[in-house]
Design a protein that fits this description.
Elements (H helix, E strand, L loop, with lengths): L8 H54 L2 H14 L4 H14 L42 H17 L2 H14 L5 H21 L3 H14 L4 H19 L4 H14 L6 H18 L3 H14 L3 H22 L4 E3 L6 H6 L2 E3 L9 E7 L6 E7 L7 E5 L1 E6 L6 E5 L6 E5 L6 E3 L7 E5 L5 E6 L8 E6 L2
Antiparallel strand pairs: 1-2, 3-4, 4-5, 6-7, 7-8, 8-9, 10-11, 11-12
Length: 463
């Protein structure tokens, strides 16, 4: 004879659904953690590329071609498709190729500025070593690079223009100095804009800095550089320190409210910081952060979270100011209204003396809760029941009637705080607003459970 299962079939369905939900939440948390880690790694990689690019450019301008090549190779290890590194190596190869020396020998007989360039190890192309006695570069070659740079500038090919201008500087630093510097400035700025628009922010920052090295007084470029630098700083702090992130974003938002996605990030940062504070039950500080988030843009979910934090903050202030007394909620009232409309009872009426019971919503999950707050102490409210609302405490303080919001327990239930015993009085989700008779033997409720949806008053035994 087959034994019947200890649990009904619907219980197994609920257990299975809860298990799947828990696994989904765990997987989602792991994915979010991995994604945040990947974002931090990507930010660090871009920062390393920007630093190496600046070092390579500086070394190339100084004529230290081998050091420039090493830095470009580091960039290609981090980003094999980096255009600036590839073009930079092509420039070095052009300078070191046979027949055209890496640097011109001045008529005065001074030493050449460029250092010898050995074959790169990170690329497949071998570079012939530069001979010890460089030959003079023909004037036609120098003019050819200059003409190529001019054509590239007119066509808006900024990377090509920059490559040719750097070659001109390397070959003859005294050639058209003012014009070359003007064209270099233009190329750096426009190439920085291209990189900025493509979200290659570290490279854009390096190019802005090179442009400012040529024209330190360019205030518009200084502003663009400063905004980008602050934005990169924000990306570094995001997800690591929300308090510092909000401070940096606020400063950036005050400078330029429409810059990139600063407004959206500022609201997200305030919200994340508020959620952290709410999790630590610092309700008043959380309320301030939610208000700051709403000052950026209105959002329905944020308003609900703000209101819940505001209620908790007011209750905490009330608890700190009160010294004696026991309060009982008026069933069915909203959290803010209920806190102001409770009726006082003497401390000897029951074991609940000195407690305030109220219903609210969790600011993080949105689930309804019944909280217990001790009057006269600076302690936070304690969670009594979840998925519950409209508490009504019996006059002896030993049993609590409430509206049960659990899907499998919808209706009116009772709870004994001392023993943890829970009883179900009704099975209709429409039943609400429970209240006790003076003897504590019956519960009175309001409901529109009938098909005509008219409200009616019902009574039921509570034993």
């Amino acid at each position: 004879m087959a034994h019947e299962s200890r649990f009904p079939a619907w219980a197994w369905w609920i257990i299975g659904a809860i298990t799947i939900l828990a696994i989904s939440i765990l997987v989602f948390s792991v994915v979010l953690g991995i994604r945040a880690g990947q974002e931090q790694v990507e930010i660090q990689r871009r920062q390393q590329i920007g630093i190496a690019l600046q070092r390579a450019t500086d070394a190339q301008v100084e004529g230290n071609l081998q050091a420039a090549l090493d830095e470009y190779q580091k960039i290609l290890v981090l980003d094999p498709s980096n255009d600036l590194a590839q073009q930079g190596i092509k420039n070095l190869l052009a300078l070191a190729s046979g027949g055209e020396a890496a640097a011109t020998q001045p008529a005065t007989g001074s030493e050449p500025a460029a250092s010898p360039l050995s074959a790169p190890t990170a690329t497949a192309t071998a570079v012939a070593p530069v001979t010890a006695a460089p030959t003079s570069t023909p004037a036609s070659t120098l003019i050819g690079y200059w003409d190529d740079a001019q054509r590239a500038v007119k066509a808006g090919r900024w990377q090509e223009a920059l490559n040719n201008l750097i070659l001109v500087q390397q070959i003859d630093p005294s050639y058209r100095v003012s014009e070359v510097n003007d064209e270099l400035f233009t190329a750096y700025v426009n190439l920085a804009l291209e990189k900025d628009n493509a979200d290659n922010l570290e490279e854009a920052l390096t190019l802005y800095q090179k442009a400012l090295a040529l024209r330190p007084g360019a205030t518009d470029i200084q502003r663009d550089r400063d905004l980008l630098e602050q934005y990169l700083q924000v990306l570094t702090y995001t997800g690591v320190d929300w308090e510092l992130t909000t401070a940096e974003l606020t400063a950036l938002f005050n400078l330029e409210p429409d810059y990139r996605d600063v407004a959206e990030r500022l609201q997200q940062a305030h919200t994340a910081r508020a959620d952290e504070l709410a999790g630590d039950e610092e309700w008043c500080a959380a309320q301030d952060e939610y208000n700051a988030a709403l000052s950026v843009a209105s959002d329905g979910d944020l308003i609900l979270k703000r209101d819940a934090a505001q209620t908790q903050c007011r209750l905490a202030d009330t608890a700190g100011a009160a010294s004696t007394g026991t309060a009982r909620l008026t069933p069915g009232a909203t959290p803010a209204a209920t806190a102001a409309s409770v009726s006082a009872v003497t401390s000897g009426d029951g074991p609940a003396g000195g407690r305030l019971l109220y219903s609210t919503s969790d600011p993080i999950t949105g689930r309804s809760q019944i909280m217990s707050l001790t009057i006269g102490r600076s302690t936070p409210a304690q969670l009594l029941l979840e998925d519950a609302a409209q508490p009504a405490l019996r006059s002896d303080g030993t049993r609590l009637a409430f509206r049960n919001l659990r899907n499998d327990m919808a209706g009116i239930s009772s709870f004994d705080p001392a023993s943890g015993l829970m009883l179900r009085f009704s099975q209709y989700a429409e039943d609400s607003l429970p209240s006790w008779n003076p003897q504590g033997s019956r519960v009175v409720i309001a409901s529109n459970r009938e098909g005509d949806r008219r409200w009616r008053i019902y009574t039921m035994w509570a034993e």
